[in-house]
Protein backbone atom coordinates (compact mmCIF):
# COMPACT_ATOMS: atom_id res chain seq x y z
CA UNK A 1 0.00 0.00 0.00
CA UNK A 2 1.44 3.39 -0.97
CA UNK A 3 1.62 6.31 1.44
CA UNK A 4 -1.38 7.98 -0.23
CA UNK A 5 -3.52 4.84 -0.56
CA UNK A 6 -6.57 4.50 1.66
CA UNK A 7 -6.43 1.74 4.29
CA UNK A 8 -8.43 -1.37 3.42
CA UNK A 9 -12.01 -1.43 4.58
CA UNK A 10 -12.72 -3.39 7.74
CA UNK A 11 -15.32 -6.15 7.49
CA UNK A 12 -18.08 -5.58 10.05
CA UNK A 13 -20.61 -8.36 10.63
CA UNK A 14 -24.19 -7.53 11.62
CA UNK A 15 -27.49 -9.37 11.94
CA UNK A 16 -29.07 -9.46 8.49
CA UNK A 17 -30.72 -9.34 6.11
CA UNK A 18 -31.12 -5.68 5.13
CA UNK A 19 -33.58 -3.79 7.33
CA UNK A 20 -32.84 -5.14 10.84
CA UNK A 21 -32.64 -2.96 13.93
CA UNK A 22 -29.02 -4.09 14.19
CA UNK A 23 -28.29 -2.59 10.77
CA UNK A 24 -30.18 0.58 11.72
CA UNK A 25 -28.05 0.99 14.85
CA UNK A 26 -24.87 0.22 12.92
CA UNK A 27 -25.67 2.82 10.25
CA UNK A 28 -26.04 5.45 13.00
CA UNK A 29 -22.25 5.27 13.42
CA UNK A 30 -20.67 7.23 10.53
CA UNK A 31 -17.25 5.61 10.83
CA UNK A 32 -18.69 2.09 10.82
CA UNK A 33 -21.26 2.66 8.08
CA UNK A 34 -18.45 3.44 5.64
CA UNK A 35 -16.78 0.05 6.22
CA UNK A 36 -17.62 -3.21 4.42
CA UNK A 37 -20.82 -4.38 6.10
CA UNK A 38 -21.41 -8.15 6.13
CA UNK A 39 -24.95 -9.43 6.89
CA UNK A 40 -24.97 -12.69 8.85
CA UNK A 41 -27.68 -15.03 10.11
CA UNK A 42 -27.28 -15.00 13.92
CA UNK A 43 -25.45 -13.18 16.69
CA UNK A 44 -23.63 -16.40 17.49
CA UNK A 45 -22.40 -16.69 13.92
CA UNK A 46 -21.14 -13.10 14.03
CA UNK A 47 -19.14 -13.60 17.23
CA UNK A 48 -17.65 -16.88 16.03
CA UNK A 49 -16.59 -15.24 12.75
CA UNK A 50 -14.85 -12.39 14.59
CA UNK A 51 -13.07 -14.84 16.89
CA UNK A 52 -11.91 -16.90 13.89
CA UNK A 53 -10.64 -13.82 12.05
CA UNK A 54 -13.12 -14.20 9.19
CA UNK A 55 -14.36 -10.64 9.80
CA UNK A 56 -12.70 -7.76 11.63
CA UNK A 57 -15.53 -6.61 13.89
CA UNK A 58 -18.97 -7.76 14.98
CA UNK A 59 -21.98 -5.62 15.83
CA UNK A 60 -24.51 -7.44 18.01
CA UNK A 61 -27.43 -6.81 20.34
CA UNK A 62 -26.66 -7.41 24.00
CA UNK A 63 -29.53 -5.97 26.08
CA UNK A 64 -33.12 -4.77 25.73
CA UNK A 65 -34.90 -2.48 28.18
CA UNK A 66 -38.02 -4.71 28.18
CA UNK A 67 -36.69 -8.23 27.83
CA UNK A 68 -33.27 -7.81 29.46
CA UNK A 69 -30.05 -9.49 28.38
CA UNK A 70 -29.71 -11.06 24.95
CA UNK A 71 -28.38 -14.26 26.48
CA UNK A 72 -26.92 -15.76 23.31
CA UNK A 73 -24.63 -12.73 22.98
CA UNK A 74 -23.73 -12.42 26.64
CA UNK A 75 -23.02 -16.12 27.14
CA UNK A 76 -20.88 -16.28 24.01
CA UNK A 77 -18.78 -13.30 25.12
CA UNK A 78 -18.48 -14.54 28.70
CA UNK A 79 -17.86 -18.22 28.09
CA UNK A 80 -16.96 -18.99 24.48
CA UNK A 81 -14.86 -16.27 22.84
CA UNK A 82 -11.94 -14.00 23.74
CA UNK A 83 -13.23 -10.72 22.36
CA UNK A 84 -13.34 -7.16 23.66
CA UNK A 85 -16.23 -4.71 23.56
CA UNK A 86 -15.09 -1.62 21.64
CA UNK A 87 -18.21 0.54 21.76
CA UNK A 88 -21.86 0.53 22.77
CA UNK A 89 -24.79 2.01 20.85
CA UNK A 90 -28.33 2.44 22.21
CA UNK A 91 -31.24 2.53 19.75
CA UNK A 92 -34.89 3.31 20.42
CA UNK A 93 -37.02 0.44 19.12
CA UNK A 94 -40.48 0.62 17.54
CA UNK A 95 -42.04 -2.68 16.59
CA UNK A 96 -44.68 -2.87 13.85
CA UNK A 97 -46.91 -5.57 12.44
CA UNK A 98 -46.30 -5.89 8.69
CA UNK A 99 -48.18 -7.88 6.06
CA UNK A 100 -48.53 -8.00 2.25
CA UNK A 101 -50.90 -5.46 0.66
CA UNK A 102 -54.51 -6.53 0.90
CA UNK A 103 -54.04 -8.46 4.14
CA UNK A 104 -56.12 -7.27 7.09
CA UNK A 105 -55.59 -7.76 10.81
CA UNK A 106 -58.50 -10.21 10.92
CA UNK A 107 -56.79 -12.38 8.29
CA UNK A 108 -53.64 -13.03 10.32
CA UNK A 109 -53.16 -16.62 11.50
CA UNK A 110 -49.35 -16.71 11.78
CA UNK A 111 -46.78 -14.13 12.96
CA UNK A 112 -43.08 -14.46 12.17
CA UNK A 113 -40.67 -12.62 14.45
CA UNK A 114 -37.29 -12.64 16.15
CA UNK A 115 -37.81 -14.27 19.60
CA UNK A 116 -36.53 -11.21 21.50
CA UNK A 117 -39.04 -9.02 19.64
CA UNK A 118 -41.85 -11.50 20.27
CA UNK A 119 -41.20 -11.18 24.00
CA UNK A 120 -41.34 -7.38 23.75
CA UNK A 121 -44.88 -7.42 22.34
CA UNK A 122 -46.36 -10.59 23.82
CA UNK A 123 -49.21 -8.74 25.57
CA UNK A 124 -50.24 -6.93 22.38
CA UNK A 125 -50.17 -10.16 20.38
CA UNK A 126 -52.23 -12.00 22.99
CA UNK A 127 -54.79 -9.18 23.10
CA UNK A 128 -55.08 -8.31 19.40
CA UNK A 129 -54.29 -11.69 17.81
CA UNK A 130 -55.32 -14.36 20.34
CA UNK A 131 -54.44 -17.89 19.35
CA UNK A 132 -52.20 -16.82 16.48
CA UNK A 133 -49.15 -19.02 15.87
CA UNK A 134 -45.89 -17.21 16.62
CA UNK A 135 -42.99 -18.53 14.51
CA UNK A 136 -39.36 -17.75 15.31
CA UNK A 137 -37.17 -16.15 12.64
CA UNK A 138 -33.44 -15.39 12.71
CA UNK A 139 -34.17 -11.65 12.67
CA UNK A 140 -37.12 -9.30 12.31
CA UNK A 141 -36.01 -8.34 8.81
CA UNK A 142 -35.75 -12.03 7.88
CA UNK A 143 -39.34 -12.43 9.12
CA UNK A 144 -40.44 -9.55 6.89
CA UNK A 145 -38.55 -10.96 3.91
CA UNK A 146 -40.18 -14.38 4.30
CA UNK A 147 -43.68 -12.93 4.71
CA UNK A 148 -43.14 -10.80 1.60
CA UNK A 149 -41.98 -13.79 -0.44
CA UNK A 150 -44.76 -16.13 0.72
CA UNK A 151 -47.58 -13.56 0.48
CA UNK A 152 -50.02 -16.24 1.64
CA UNK A 153 -52.60 -13.78 2.96
CA UNK A 154 -52.51 -15.14 6.53
CA UNK A 155 -48.93 -14.38 7.66
CA UNK A 156 -47.50 -11.21 9.15
CA UNK A 157 -44.15 -10.14 10.56
CA UNK A 158 -43.05 -8.08 13.55
CA UNK A 159 -40.35 -5.81 12.16
CA UNK A 160 -39.08 -2.22 11.74
CA UNK A 161 -41.02 0.11 9.45
CA UNK A 162 -37.94 0.20 7.20
CA UNK A 163 -38.45 -3.50 6.45
CA UNK A 164 -41.93 -2.73 5.09
CA UNK A 165 -40.41 -0.49 2.42
CA UNK A 166 -37.65 -2.96 1.57
CA UNK A 167 -39.89 -6.04 1.26
CA UNK A 168 -43.07 -4.46 -0.12
CA UNK A 169 -45.29 -4.83 2.94
CA UNK A 170 -47.98 -2.69 4.56
CA UNK A 171 -47.89 -1.57 8.19
CA UNK A 172 -50.99 -3.03 9.85
CA UNK A 173 -50.17 -1.72 13.34
CA UNK A 174 -47.48 0.64 14.67
CA UNK A 175 -45.73 0.64 18.03
CA UNK A 176 -46.99 -2.74 19.21
CA UNK A 177 -44.33 -3.15 21.92
CA UNK A 178 -45.81 -3.55 25.40
CA UNK A 179 -43.85 -0.64 26.90
CA UNK A 180 -43.30 2.74 25.28
CA UNK A 181 -39.70 3.06 26.51
CA UNK A 182 -38.20 0.30 24.40
CA UNK A 183 -34.46 0.52 23.75
CA UNK A 184 -31.86 -2.01 22.68
CA UNK A 185 -28.17 -1.80 23.49
CA UNK A 186 -25.75 -2.98 20.83
CA UNK A 187 -22.01 -3.51 21.15
CA UNK A 188 -19.13 -3.51 18.69
CA UNK A 189 -16.69 -6.34 19.44
CA UNK A 190 -13.28 -7.32 18.17
CA UNK A 191 -9.88 -8.57 19.26
CA UNK A 192 -8.79 -5.12 20.43
CA UNK A 193 -7.06 -2.91 21.26
CA UNK A 194 -8.94 -1.32 24.17
CA UNK A 195 -10.17 2.17 23.21
CA UNK A 196 -8.48 5.01 25.17
CA UNK A 197 -10.40 6.60 28.06
CA UNK A 198 -12.81 9.42 27.20
CA UNK A 199 -13.94 10.52 30.65
CA UNK A 200 -17.33 8.85 30.24
CA UNK A 201 -16.62 5.16 29.92
CA UNK A 202 -17.97 1.79 30.90
CA UNK A 203 -16.14 -1.44 31.75
CA UNK A 204 -17.57 -4.96 31.56
CA UNK A 205 -16.19 -7.93 33.47
CA UNK A 206 -17.21 -11.51 34.24
CA UNK A 207 -16.44 -12.72 37.76
CA UNK A 208 -16.07 -16.42 38.54
CA UNK A 209 -16.34 -17.40 42.22
CA UNK A 210 -14.01 -19.87 43.93
CA UNK A 211 -16.77 -21.56 45.89
CA UNK A 212 -20.45 -21.03 46.54
CA UNK A 213 -20.21 -19.70 50.07
CA UNK A 214 -22.12 -17.19 52.17
CA UNK A 215 -21.02 -13.62 51.63
CA UNK A 216 -19.01 -14.22 48.45
CA UNK A 217 -20.99 -11.69 46.40
CA UNK A 218 -20.91 -9.17 49.25
CA UNK A 219 -17.12 -9.45 49.41
CA UNK A 220 -16.97 -8.57 45.71
CA UNK A 221 -19.41 -5.68 45.92
CA UNK A 222 -17.68 -4.16 48.93
CA UNK A 223 -14.60 -3.45 46.82
CA UNK A 224 -16.66 -1.33 44.42
CA UNK A 225 -18.66 0.36 47.19
CA UNK A 226 -15.53 1.29 49.14
CA UNK A 227 -14.24 3.18 46.09
CA UNK A 228 -17.62 4.68 45.13
CA UNK A 229 -17.55 2.90 41.76
CA UNK A 230 -21.05 2.76 40.33
CA UNK A 231 -22.30 -0.58 38.96
CA UNK A 232 -24.75 -0.09 36.09
CA UNK A 233 -25.56 -3.79 35.74
CA UNK A 234 -25.12 -6.94 37.83
CA UNK A 235 -26.39 -10.25 36.54
CA UNK A 236 -25.71 -13.90 37.31
CA UNK A 237 -25.44 -16.42 34.49
CA UNK A 238 -24.86 -20.20 34.62
CA UNK A 239 -21.35 -21.24 33.64
CA UNK A 240 -22.82 -24.34 31.95
CA UNK A 241 -20.41 -26.52 33.93
CA UNK A 242 -22.72 -27.75 36.68
CA UNK A 243 -26.10 -27.04 38.22
CA UNK A 244 -25.80 -24.08 40.58
CA UNK A 245 -22.43 -22.96 39.16
CA UNK A 246 -22.89 -19.28 38.27
CA UNK A 247 -20.73 -16.34 37.25
CA UNK A 248 -21.47 -12.63 37.67
CA UNK A 249 -21.54 -10.25 34.72
CA UNK A 250 -20.87 -6.69 35.85
CA UNK A 251 -21.03 -3.38 33.97
CA UNK A 252 -19.45 -0.50 35.87
CA UNK A 253 -18.62 3.12 35.26
CA UNK A 254 -14.99 3.89 34.51
CA UNK A 255 -12.06 2.70 32.42
CA UNK A 256 -9.29 0.19 33.06
CA UNK A 257 -6.85 3.09 32.64
CA UNK A 258 -8.33 4.69 35.78
CA UNK A 259 -6.02 3.85 38.69
CA UNK A 260 -8.93 3.60 41.14
CA UNK A 261 -10.74 1.09 38.96
CA UNK A 262 -7.67 -0.97 38.15
CA UNK A 263 -6.80 -1.18 41.86
CA UNK A 264 -10.35 -2.31 42.57
CA UNK A 265 -10.21 -5.05 39.95
CA UNK A 266 -6.89 -6.23 41.33
CA UNK A 267 -8.39 -6.62 44.81
CA UNK A 268 -11.50 -8.34 43.45
CA UNK A 269 -9.30 -10.71 41.45
CA UNK A 270 -7.49 -11.71 44.64
CA UNK A 271 -10.80 -12.86 46.18
CA UNK A 272 -12.25 -14.86 43.29
CA UNK A 273 -11.31 -17.74 41.02
CA UNK A 274 -10.98 -15.57 37.94
CA UNK A 275 -12.08 -12.39 36.19
CA UNK A 276 -12.66 -12.18 32.46
CA UNK A 277 -12.19 -8.65 31.18
CA UNK A 278 -14.61 -7.84 28.35
CA UNK A 279 -13.42 -4.31 27.67
CA UNK A 280 -13.54 -0.63 28.55
CA UNK A 281 -15.32 1.55 26.02
CA UNK A 282 -17.13 4.89 25.54
CA UNK A 283 -20.52 4.84 27.26
CA UNK A 284 -23.56 5.54 25.09
CA UNK A 285 -26.34 8.01 25.78
CA UNK A 286 -27.45 11.45 24.69
CA UNK A 287 -25.45 13.08 27.50
CA UNK A 288 -22.29 11.14 26.75
CA UNK A 289 -20.44 13.79 24.70
CA UNK A 290 -21.23 16.54 27.23
CA UNK A 291 -20.12 14.36 30.14
CA UNK A 292 -16.89 13.55 28.31
CA UNK A 293 -16.24 17.27 27.71
CA UNK A 294 -16.96 18.05 31.35
CA UNK A 295 -14.61 15.28 32.46
CA UNK A 296 -11.82 16.59 30.22
CA UNK A 297 -12.26 20.14 31.52
CA UNK A 298 -12.38 18.93 35.13
CA UNK A 299 -9.23 16.88 34.60
CA UNK A 300 -7.38 19.83 33.06
CA UNK A 301 -8.40 22.03 35.98
CA UNK A 302 -7.35 19.35 38.49
CA UNK A 303 -4.05 18.84 36.68
CA UNK A 304 -3.33 22.57 36.77
CA UNK A 305 -4.16 22.63 40.48
CA UNK A 306 -1.87 19.74 41.39
CA UNK A 307 0.96 21.20 39.32
CA UNK A 308 0.56 24.48 41.20
CA UNK A 309 0.75 22.67 44.53
CA UNK A 310 3.78 20.64 43.48
CA UNK A 311 5.53 23.85 42.48
CA UNK A 312 5.47 24.84 46.16
CA UNK A 313 7.56 21.83 47.20
CA UNK A 314 11.02 22.55 48.57
CA UNK A 315 13.59 21.81 45.88
CA UNK A 316 15.88 18.89 46.73
CA UNK A 317 19.23 19.98 48.18
What can you tell me about this protein's structure?
This protein is of the alpha/beta class and 317 residues long. It folds into 3 domains: 8-92 and 178-193, D-Maltodextrin-Binding Protein, domain 2 (3-Layer(aba) Sandwich), CATH 3.40.190; 96-173, D-Maltodextrin-Binding Protein, domain 2 (3-Layer(aba) Sandwich), CATH 3.40.190.10; 195-291, ACT domain (Alpha-Beta Plaits). The protein has helices at residues 21-27, 30-33, 43-51, 71-80, 115-120, 122-128, 140-150, 161-167, 216-226, 259-271, 288-310, and strands at residues 11-15, 36-40, 57-64, 68-69, 84-92, 96-99, 110-113, 133-136, 155-159, 170-173, 183-190, 201-208, 231-238, 246-253, 274-282. The strands form 3 sheets. Strands 1, 2, 3, 4, 5 and 11 form a 6-stranded mixed sheet that branches. It has a 5-stranded mixed sheet with strand order 8-7-9-6-10. Strands 13-14-12-15 form a 4-stranded antiparallel sheet, with helices on both faces. Strand 13 (231-238) and strand 14 form a beta hairpin. Helix 7 (140-150) packs parallel to helix 8 (161-167) and helix 9 (216-226) runs antiparallel to helix 10 (259-271). The longest helix is centred in the C-terminal third of the chain and has 23 residues, at 288-310. The N and C termini lie far apart (56 Å).
Can you lay out the helices and strands and say which pair or pack?
Elements: E1 11-15, H1 21-27, H2 30-33, E2 36-40, H3 43-51, E3 57-64, E4 68-69, H4 71-80, E5 84-92, E6 96-99, E7 110-113, H5 115-120, H6 122-128, E8 133-136, H7 140-150, E9 155-159, H8 161-167, E10 170-173, E11 183-190, E12 201-208, H9 216-226, E13 231-238, E14 246-253, H10 259-271, E15 274-282, H11 288-310
Parallel strand pairs: 1-2, 1-3, 7-8, 7-9
Antiparallel strand pairs: 3-4, 3-11, 5-11, 6-9, 6-10, 12-14, 12-15, 13-14
Amino acid sequence: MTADAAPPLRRVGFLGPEGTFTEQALLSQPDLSSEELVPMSTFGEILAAVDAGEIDLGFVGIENSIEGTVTVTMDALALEHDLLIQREVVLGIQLNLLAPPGTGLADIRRVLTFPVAAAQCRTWLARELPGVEVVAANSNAEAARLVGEEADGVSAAVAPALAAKIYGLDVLAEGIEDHSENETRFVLVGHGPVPPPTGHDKTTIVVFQRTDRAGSLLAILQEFAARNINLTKLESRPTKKALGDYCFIIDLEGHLDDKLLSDCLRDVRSKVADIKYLGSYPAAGVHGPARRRDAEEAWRAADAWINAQRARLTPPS
